[in-house]
């Protein structure tokens, strides 16, 4: 037959060589997998030992968590629960009004916290947007700019917000400005990394087309990349806003404003029932923001992407 494959001695040698090479690759891959699994198990064992993550200790400690919450809960009395303030303007002990006697102070500080998070997110996202393009492997003009952009973003997100806040409180004084700047710096580093990874997954066909007709680097980014990645950027920015609301509550512990400053005050006064009152409002606020962010993300990305 004209199309039949003729096996010759040289053809058999080539097939044998291919099989040997394939077997070598399989052995090499198997050895690498075993080495990886062994290293992972070793690190996991060391982590368990260092963190003392022992089941018996965890089981004995869980009931104490509930005991602790039992000691800090407010002393509410059912028959006085919904009583308002008396003729003298004072709340009745045992009522919700007494527990939340500083309710409007908390609301004002939580509103201040949300504004801090919003400002910090806008500032950080703007810096991240500018840095993410030179920090993307497929878009960086050269390796020096790529490395500098990457290292700068690593520095920004490598230091915790509270440490930035400590330095900035010393520099600009006690108040929300230090908290906003601290969170904005960390946001720029964290979002910049996420944005650059989105850029590296974008299709380069539009960029190649713009480059082929003589477009500049800025035109490649503006018309070839930005339309592709904008929905993902928006989604990550909204997620970061939620994180920043929680972060704003933490930086307040060092005098950077917001509800965290009040939380630090009631903790230092050993006013446990007030601590619970503030924490409940913070959790409620974060939940509401999470629901709102989810709706905004679906609006920008499209409901069909969640099906």
Task: Give me some keywords for this one.
mainly alpha, 0% strand, 75% helix, 11 helices
- Which word captures the global form? extended
**Whole-number radius of gyration?**
29 Å
Global structural class: mainly alpha
Order of helices and strands: HHHHHHHHHHH
* Total helical segments: 11
Low-pLDDT runs: 1-5
State the end-to-end CA separation.
55 Å
Task: Determine the mean pLDDT.
Answer: 86
For the biggest sheet, the summary is:
none
Q: β content, as a range? A: under 5%
Q: Helical amount among residues, as a percent range?
A: over 70%
Please give the number of β-strands: 0
Description:
The chain is an all-alpha fold and 307 residues long. The chain is built from eleven helices and no strands. It has helices spanning 9-51, 55-72, 96-99, 103-132, 143-158, 161-172, 176-200, 205-212, 217-251, 259-268, 272-301. α9 packs parallel to α10. The longest helix is centred in the first third of the chain and has 43 residues, at 9-51. The protein is extended and about 105 Å long. Mean pLDDT is 86; it is low at 1-5.
Quickly describe the structure:
The protein is mainly alpha-helical and 307 residues long.
Topology:
Layout lengths: L8 H43 L3 H18 L23 H4 L3 H30 L10 H16 L2 H12 L3 H25 L4 H8 L4 H35 L7 H10 L3 H30 L6
């Amino acid at each position: 037959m004209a199309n039949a494959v003729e096996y010759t001695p040289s053809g058999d040698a080539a097939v044998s060589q291919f099989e040997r090479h394939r077997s070598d690759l399989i052995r090499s891959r198997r050895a690498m997998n075993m080495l990886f699994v062994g290293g992972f198990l070793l690190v996991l064992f060391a982590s368990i030992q260092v963190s003392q993550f022992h089941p018996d200790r965890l089981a004995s400690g869980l009931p104490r968590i509930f005991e602790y919450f039992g000691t800090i809960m407010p002393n509410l009395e059912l028959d006085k629960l919904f009583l308002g303030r008396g003729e003298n303007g004072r709340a009745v002990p045992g009522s919700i009004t007494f527990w939340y006697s500083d309710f409007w102070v908390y609301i004002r500080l939580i509103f201040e916290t949300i504004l801090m998070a919003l400002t910090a997110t806008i500032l950080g996202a703007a810096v991240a947007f500018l840095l993410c393009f030179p920090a993307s492997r497929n878009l960086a003009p050269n390796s020096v700019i790529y490395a500098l952009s990457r290292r700068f973003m690593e520095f920004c997100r490598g230091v915790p917000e509270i440490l930035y806040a400590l330095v900035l409180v010393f520099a600009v004084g006690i108040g929300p400005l230090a908290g906003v700047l601290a969170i904005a710096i960390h946001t720029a580093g964290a979002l910049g990394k996420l944005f650059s990874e989105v850029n590296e997954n974008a299709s380069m066909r539009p960029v190649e087309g713009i480059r082929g007709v003589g477009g500049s680097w800025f035109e490649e980014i503006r018309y070839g990349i930005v339309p592709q990645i904008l929905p993902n950027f928006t989604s990550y920015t909204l997620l970061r806003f939620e994180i920043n609301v929680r972060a704003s509550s933490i930086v307040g512990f060092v005098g950077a404003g917001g509800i965290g400053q009040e939380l630090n005050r009631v903790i230092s006064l050993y006013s446990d029932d007030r601590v619970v009152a503030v924490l409940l409002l913070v959790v409620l606020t974060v939940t509401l923001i999470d629901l709102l962010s989810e709706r905004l993300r679906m609006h920008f990305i499209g409901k069909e992407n969640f099906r």
